[in-house]
Amino acid sequence: MRSTCLAATCTHTPNGEPIYAKVNSLTSIETEMPFSYYSLPYCHPQGGIKKSAENLGELLMGDQIDNSPYRFRVNVNESLFLCTTKGLNENDAKLLKQRTRDLYQVNMMLDNLPVMRFTEQNGITVQWTGFPVGYSPAGSSEDYIINHLKFKVLVHEYEGKKVEILGTGEEGSGVISELDRKGMSGYQIVGFEVVPCSVKRKAEDFSKLNMYDSIDSVDCPMELQKSQVIRQQERITFTYDVMFVKSDIRWPSRWDAYLKMEAGAKVHWFSIMNSLMVILFLAGIVFVIFLRTVRRDLTRYEELDKEAQAQMNEELSGWKLVVGDVFREPSCSKLLCIMIGDGIQILGMAIVTIVFATLGFMSPASRGMLLTGMIILYLFLGIAAGYVSVRFWRTIKGTSEGWRSVSWLTACFFPGIMFTVLTILNFVLWGSKSTGALPISLFFTLLALWFCISVPLTLVGGFLGTRAEQIEFPVRTNQIPREIPARKYPSWLLVIGAGTLPFGTLFIELFFILSSIWLGRFYYVFGFLLIVMLLLVVVCAEVSVVLTYMNLCVEDWRWWWKAFFASGSVALYVFLYSINYLVFDLRSLSGPVSAMLYVGYSFLMAFAIMLATGTIGFLTSFAFVHYLFASVKID
């Protein structure tokens, strides 16, 4: 009785082969703090608890995958007894009640498929992954535990011969060679559903039973008197039913049901397309008008003869007046170079990750791979961060002196802030004994990856930046800075307001991303996310260039930081939208610890977005200003 696995498929053969479900951490949309499944008084497997190997992404997400006592025999419908607990002590009863009231969910998997349940809400069938620890009926002071599970396993049958089992791997997975798909024989699990019940049972009636002994099947009781209450000294009996159903769903399509779980999918797609078209149309108009204005200025100037140009130089107005100051070194120039370098690193990581996910390399079956891939990409893109930050440092200063300091700070700026915030949140999770807390070993592993990969590569990139050709400014900078005329309104007001246009391109997608992070929903429309990402890059570039041109036209030569924050200010709106989501969409989130976790993670997300979008805006504005003043010959 073995499983054969080939080309990412697993075929179970013959009938009666045992397959065991696994359990992940208990999760809640109220607290956002995961806890181990066996932190509650559930039945333990006969051979003891064994943790599954987890990748870096799973550990960072707080996953803790363990084996479970739930056994399924292929195509065998049965009702089985698991165990009866000892009388609940005060701590166990209190903990069960707390987890029930905090809406904690049990996350179970069979053959890597999360268990799915269905509920009726306002006449609409809603799909969920996992099932609740228990429930607290309205109007009742008691809490009831889910202790009986009615499973339905969907299997797809393959018929044929020519199956040659050469050996067995982990958990009985067979290794087969030269297997023709048409010759494969057996069953593949393509669906896993559950109906959770609370059934009151007399512990004495099951005292002589052993695990996996057969029992009579029961229906889920509707009356509270027949449900299992959570109370001190209560003994809880755990049982389950299994029913196998043949299905026409094929293996490659078995995740479709999970990826289509988002309610209102048509509204989701229509809203994104509508947003994309409107923003693209507005940005296109602004950009075309802007190009015509600058082109007219340049054309008129170039058509004049030398004498007329000399006369015009004396009567210069607008952006031409700041020719001797436009490339003057900005304040906090080292910090600007560092933030641009980190922005390149984050932007490169985001684009490559989304492209790979769009092409199908980030399967939802591979839990944690998306986050693992992002971390690996970020580490190796340190070379690009060091190169860009040092090259701009050379451009601004005119010398390579101090490049090591710039490289070190680039390697430590964003990761340092991230580690500081995560350490604070980790202490909070440690204090709550949550599986979301990073193990101390993983914490040091991340630090080692940072210092052994990212930091050296950033220094290598910085060294390459010193050897790269220096970007020469097209005009000389005056020794005495030009006085900037007074303005009727603060220039930073316009900078902050400029972030609304980039935010308009992503706020709809942001809602679905936040829902996938905080409500446990699957997010897999990476094709649309890639379109939104590309449109965001275009809009950030356009907004920053337009704002830079407006500043130069009013003789304000301090455009460097304003160009960065014109597009980077979208992060402010992302953070405010996250708070809005917390208040109006995560109303169930309870307690200061949960709110602290949410705000902390939202801050990190917004800060990363600021660095990435700010870098897009600055690089585009720099290229524009360089081109603009290189096109006009003013002595």
TrEMBL record:
The keyword Metal-binding does not apply. It is found in: Endosome membrane; Golgi apparatus membrane. The lineage of its organism: Eukaryota, Viridiplantae, Streptophyta, Embryophyta, Tracheophyta. InterPro entries: EMP70. It is a multi-pass membrane protein. Belongs to the nonaspanin (TM9SF) (TC 9.A.2) family. Keywords: Endosome, Membrane, Signal, Transmembrane, Transmembrane helix. The keyword Transmembrane helix applies. It comes from the Eukaryota. GO terms for biological process: protein localization to membrane. The chain crosses the membrane at residues 269-291, 335-362, 368-388, 408-430, 442-464, 492-518, 524-547, 559-583, 603-629. This is Transmembrane 9 superfamily member. One of its GO terms (cellular component) is endosome membrane.
